[in-house]
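It is worth pausing here to work through a concrete case rather than discussing structure prediction in the abstract. The textbook approach is simple: state the sequence, then state the predicted structure, then interpret. We follow exactly that order.
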Amino acid sequence: MFEELKKKALKSSILGSIILILAGLGLAGWNALDAFYSVKGYTDFNTIPTEEISNQLVTVDLQYNFGCFLEAYEKNTKTGSIKTTDLYYVIGTEDVTSETIDWKFMAIKVPASYAGRMDKMYDGDTTPVTLSGKIKKLSAEDERYFREYFESAGFTDAEIDAAIIPYYIQCFASPVSMSTVYIGLFAVGAFLLLWGIIRVVKVTSGASLSKLRKDIANAGYTEASIDSDYRSAQSFDKKGILRVGRLMTYYLSGSSARAIQNSKMMWVYQNTITHRTNGVKTGTTYNVMVFDEATPKGHSFSVANETVAQEMIEYIGGTLPWVVIGYSDELKKLYNKNRSQFLDLRYNTCPHEAVDPGMKDPGAEA
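Step two, the predicted structure:
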């Protein structure tokens, strides 16, 4: 039984674990460098060799720019009004590794609120403006506007190719906030990666069965008796994960195998949920709700359809006579407000000994 459940737990959790690992690797890997420099401190842009300019976090004390070549804007679809959000300016960068002055040109993207200060700088005000942001590659369309700026100044294609670096600095309105975002995204990615690995290790090592063994021990049964009960239990899904025996009800919770002590079961009913999108029905979920003393708030077991839900409920009702079967608002009120009176309906008045319902395995036809 335990080896079988271990394999089922692995099959059930492996896809989710792989998704967690890949998502974690992607998120952590994508933000690792940014998170590192957010902690270490941004690189001084003026110290980066021209050939090493790439996606990185930088700070720059800007004294010169050569004018704006592109505006980014957003349009209000309701009013039709257009609002400028960002401006692209041409800036120069000196190759710090060259023995002679070797200027290249790239771009810097600043919020529209910086327009006044950037225009004064263009007009000759060399008071430094400290900006922080991330270097990014220009899109093909933005690079076309960048090249047109130099074409209008009389540069040839060859001169433009030699003079420009197709990157821009995306300035942050709040470097602290962006650093927090980068560190947070890296932390989330690392957590997802670790969680996915732990899930795989947990299942392959057999740790996914530890809670089941505890459930069995708490119920006072031997593993041998439970093995026999599990093998004769009725299955209510095609994978055989959800099974109702005479002693316990077996299921998977995430990557862990679990079991409910049937003698502690109090109430079972069907919960049907209809899903709608914009008023259009998109599907229906069928759940069997099981309430027991250890989990008075209940378990929700999803099954394939209403037929399987009813077969499972009928089987429990026929095998475990002390369990209240079916739902009504009155039963819900009694269960929540007067538990002792609810238990007097069947739980306290029927022997807690499973009986034979004489029912075939409904899971085989699910």
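Step three, interpretation. The mean pLDDT is 88. The longest strand covers residues 82-94.
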